[in-house]
């Protein structure tokens, strides 16, 4: 399971690098073909490790590397 979280986390970081802007949770969900639980575990790991930050914009949540 840890391996899958690491792979999904890398895919999220690659998406953010490709877009070069904050990425919404819904964008991440549509980009990844993983289970929703795996996506949220990967986001949690990235936030906990300080690789990304969660930002609220209106009703939406975004990840940014700021």
Rounded to the nearest angstrom, the radius of gyration is 11 Å
Task: Tell me about the largest β-sheet.
Answer: 3 strands, antiparallel
Structural class: alpha+beta
Relative helix content: 55-70%
Averaged pLDDT, please? 91
What's the shape?
Answer: globular
Task: Offer a quick outline of the entry.
This protein has 66 residues and is α+β, with helices and mostly antiparallel strands. The chain has helices spanning 2-19, 25-31, 36-48; strands at residues 23-24, 53-57, 60-64. 18% of the residues are buried.
Task: Tag the structure with descriptive keywords.
alpha+beta, 3-stranded antiparallel beta sheet, 66 residues, 18% strand
Describe the model.
Helix content is 58%, strand content 18%. It is globular, with a radius of gyration of 11 Å. It contains three helices and three strands. The protein has helices at 2-19, 25-31, 36-48, and strands spanning 23-24, 53-57, 60-64. Helix 1 (2-19) packs across helix 3 (36-48). With 66 residues, the protein is α+β, with helices and mostly antiparallel strands. Strands 1-3-2 form a three-stranded antiparallel sheet. The termini are far apart. The longest helix is centred in the first third of the chain and has 18 residues, at 2-19.
């Amino acid at each position: 399971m840890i391996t899958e979280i690491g792979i999904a986390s890398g895919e999220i970081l690659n998406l953010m690098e490709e877009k070069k802007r904050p990425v919404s949770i819904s964008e991440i969900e549509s980009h990844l073909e993983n289970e929703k639980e795996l996506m949220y575990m990967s986001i949690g790991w990235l936030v906990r490790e300080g690789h990304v930050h969660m930002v609220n914009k209106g009703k939406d949540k975004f990840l940014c590397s700021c």
